[in-house]
Design goal:
40% of the residues lie in helices and 18% in strands. The protein contains 21 helices and 25 strands. Helix 16 links the parallel strand 16 and strand 17. It holds the Pfam family PFK.
Length: 702
């Protein structure tokens, strides 16, 4: 918001009776001292007490001499000093409830209810959580006898204002963070110095600059120094970039340029998610072009030194605006962050900015597992999930052997290249079992904590559906299960509620049809013969009925359509009449669990006896050949598409559910099944599918 540029405005401000504390947290950045200085002097100017909190959140937790009142003179001669003179430290204890309780006690003892935090998104998220817990923390302190009720009334609200100090310029909502311009100065100074020696010896220099997740420093410094090539994490280069880069370097040398400069951000990766290191680039240039090549890693030089004029002014303006924001807060004012928009200091909601940063970072861990019987196309689905997940910035984890492997800790990171060639392979390369999670939720919750998993993609059949429902039910006991979960149906039985089609069903149908065609062909030219074929499917008759349609069967016996001896007799009579004509082959399909009494052997013996003298019988149990083999083109394509859509849903949910520095999802629509409904893929909360589920199938076998 704009501020009137007149003396009267500031004269009307009063901070009398207010206490403001300032701290720096996380990594240091040039200009932090200028921000601290501005907060102290502006606070004193308006009549407030201002305190230093030394060593960041650790000092707030420890209290004592770490929290000291600041004076006007105590911030003299700080503008030109790099780093932070009040210290910065990462504090594990502040992440715990007990640690924040200590911090609250230390602040209340000094009457501090206004906090100015200078740091990155993690530091600001921690501050916002502290603010939200404040009233509860005070009540606990009363119960422990550490403060009285009067203190609770006087210090009832904690006000937070943040300023972003980070050389990476990796915070959404601000054009520039404190420290970025100074870091660019360091980089350009080094590049300018290197260019003189490179030109003398006709060398190529490969420089690594900071930027694990954000390539701002690399990109802007490359523009500023006229580099030949730049590699950043946000834009992995297209395949074949090595040849293109070498062509560019060679062309520049041919144009009488005596040096080449390549700038690489430390987090640069290629399309296969493999790091692009300075050594990799150097070896490439030497091998392909034979140029004399050197590597320079700038490292923490970029953090050091005196702040630039821009950073001193930026930090000072932000510090003043932070104090003004604290003076104008009310009990209901949300935490804000002071940002730079164009050339103006503005206030933005802190958590909205943090969430925008989080959605762009690769700091979400997503696990994928197969559950139930193997189905052709599962591997295509896993491959699609892994590569789409990596493309969207997630770290992907593979869980072997379903829920059994989950609770046993059979979990590993899976990368882009690990799933190469998976599309055409049948079965489940991750391994899959029918074990359900209910008896092991405590151990599964432990594994989720251990690997910091933020979302689950479960690919499987009816057991997977039951499993996700059991995990959903466990949310009331274990908070670890409050994360986005989505199931993709993959089973040859096609018996998952909420979906007209499952991955693997088409391949199984092709196997049944091909086998039936060969069996029928074997009877060509022989005497009249009827084949009794048993298919898989558990208590679902999809394979028998649709396979019967595709293979031209005379009858199909399935669980969903009850039949008795009279129906069997009628079918035998029909086939007898049929065989008396020119038709010499008959085909009957039976779903494996269609009837406990009318087994495949029973039907075979019945047909053999009743058709004696007219036709003979043969029986075939197709068994697990329906699950094996390479997936059909349809299943490969279907598995790829549905899994990609599931990962996009996970990315969206992770962004929506990211609050206070963590993912928390406990609504019904955060545990869904993605199914094919008529012409569309639809996400459906699993709890809404209960009414259309026949749980008699729990004991089914595929």
């Amino acid at each position: 918001m704009a501020r009137p540029d007149n003396k009267k405005f500031f004269e009307n401000l009063t901070g009398a009776g207010k206490a403001i504390a300032v701290l720096t947290s996380g990594g240091d950045a040039q200009g932090m001292n200028a921000a601290v200085r501005a907060v102290v002097r502006m606070g004193i100017y308006v009549g407030a007490k201002v305190y230093f909190i030394h060593e960041g959140y650790q000092g707030m937790v420890d209290g004592g001499d770490n929290i000291k009142e600041a004076t006007w003179e105590s911030v003299s001669s700080m503008l030109q000093v790099g780093g932070t003179v009040i210290g910065s430290a990462r504090c594990k204890e502040f992440r715990t409830h007990e640690g924040r309780l200590k911090a609250a006690h230390n602040l209340v003892q000094r009457g501090i209810t206004n906090l100015c935090v200078i740091g990155g998104d993690g530091s600001l998220t921690g501050a916002n959580l502290f603010r939200e817990e404040w009233s509860g923390l005070l009540n606990e302190l009363v119960q422990q006898g550490l403060i009285d009720e009067d203190a609770v009334q006087r210090y009832s609200a904690l006000h937070i204002v943040g300023m972003v100090g980070s050389i990476d310029n990796d915070f959404c909502g601000t054009d520039m963070t404190i420290g970025t311009d100074s870091a660019l100065h360091r980089i350009i100074e080094v590049v300018d110095a290197i260019m003189t020696t490179a030109q003398s010896h006709q060398r190529t220099f490969v420089l690594e600059v900071m930027g694990r997740h954000c390539g701002y420093l690399a990109l802007v410094s490359a523009l500023a120094c006229g580099a030949d090539w730049v590699l950043i994490p946000e834009m992995p280069p297209e395949d074949g970039w090595e040849e293109k880069m070498c062509e560019k370097l060679s062309a520049n040398r041919a144009g009488m340029k005596r040096l080449n400069i390549i700038i690489v951000a430390e987090g640069a990766i290629d399309r296969n998610n493999k790091p692009i290191t300075t050594d990799r680039v150097k070896d490439l240039v030497v091998r392909c072009l034979g140029f004399d090549t050197r590597v320079t890693i700038l490292g923490h030089v970029q953090r050091g030194g005196t702040p630039s004029a821009f950073d001193r002014i930026l930090a000072s303006r932000m510090g003043v605006e932070a104090v003004l924001a604290l003076l104008e807060t009310t009990a209901n004012t949300p935490a804000c962050v002071v940002s730079l928009c164009g050339n103006q200091a503005v206030r933005l909601p802190l958590m909205e900015c943090v969430q925008m940063v989080s959605s762009g970072h690769s700091n979400f861990n997503v696990a994928v597992l197969n559950v139930g019987a193997p189905a052709a196309g599962m591997n295509a689905a896993v491959r699609s999930a892994v590569r789409v997940g990596i493309s969207e910035g997630h770290k992907m984890f593979a869980i072997n052997d379903g829920f059994e492997g989950f609770y046993k800790g059979q979990i590993r990171e899976i990368k882009w290249g690990d799933v190469g060639g998976w599309t055409g392979q049948g079965g489940s390369l991750l391994g899959t079992k029918r074990t359900l999670p209910a008896k092991h939720v405590d151990k599964i919750a432990e594994q989720i904590r251990k690997y910091n998993l933020n979302a689950l993609l479960i690919i499987g059949g009816f057991e997977a559906y039951l499993g996700i429902m059991e995990l959903l039910a466990a949310r009331g006991t274990y908070e670890e299960f409050c994360l986005p979960m989505v199931m993709v149906p993959a089973t040859v039985s096609n018996n998952v509620p909420g979906s007209d089609l499952s991955i693997g069903a088409d391949t199984a149908l092709n196997a049944i049809t091909d086998t039936c065609d060969r069996i029928k062909q074997s009877a060509s030219g022989t005497k009249r013969r009827v084949f009794i074929i048993e298919t898989m499917g558990g208590y679902c008759g999809y394979l028998a009925s649709v396979g019967g349609l595709a293979a031209g069967a005379d009858a199909a016996y399935i669980y969903e359509e009850p039949f008795d001896i009279r129906d069997l007799q009628s079918n035998v009579e029909h086939l007898t009449e049929k065989m008396k004509t020119s038709i010499q082959r008959g085909l009957v399909l039976r779903n494996e669990n269609c009837n406990d009494n009318y087994t495949t052997d029973f039907i075979y013996q019945l047909y053999s006896e009743e058709g004696r003298g007219v036709f003979d019988c043969r029986k075939n149990v197709l068994g697990h050949m329906q699950q094996g083999g390479a997936p059909s083109p349809f299943d490969r394509n279907f598995g790829t598409k549905i899994s990609a859509k599931a990962m996009q849903w996970i990315s969206k949910k992770l962004t929506e559910c990211y609050r206070q520095g963590r993912v928390f999802a406990n609504t019904e629509d955060s545990a869904c099944l993605l199914g094919m409904r008529r012409r569309a893929l639809v996400f459906q909360p699993v709890v809404e599918l209960k009414p259309e589920t026949d749980f008699v199938w729990v004991e089914c076998s595929e």
